[in-house]
């Protein structure tokens, strides 16, 4: 019901921002049977834009994060 990956995204000042992305699929739906329902970054809901078969987060949200920390991005599927 969960999968996680740690990665880096473009940060401010040329320093990458570390992000742990955790996908939550509590109903254990098969690929293609779910969609992103909600995204929470460090405990705060993130506004998203629907794009193709997924969602986009505004670049400014990621580049505004503290690059000295690892941030947690929870993706709730349903």
Please tag this protein with its features.
78 residues; 1 helix; two-stranded antiparallel ribbon; 6% helix; five-stranded mixed beta sheet; mainly beta; globular
Can you describe this structure?
The chain starts with a strand and ends with a strand. It has a 5-stranded mixed β-sheet with strand order 1-2-7-3-4, with no helix packed on it. Strands 5-6 form a two-stranded antiparallel sheet. The chain has one helix at residues 59-63, and strands at residues 2-9, 17-24, 36-41, 44-45, 48-51, 54-57, 70-77. It has 78 residues and is mainly beta. A hairpin with a 2-residue loop joins strand 3 (36-41) and strand 4. The chain is globular, with a radius of gyration of 13 Å. It contains 1 helix and 7 strands, in the order E-E-E-E-E-E-H-E.
Topology, pairings included?
Elements: E1 2-9, E2 17-24, E3 36-41, E4 44-45, E5 48-51, E6 54-57, H1 59-63, E7 70-77
Parallel strand pairs: 2-7
Antiparallel strand pairs: 1-2, 3-4, 3-7, 5-6
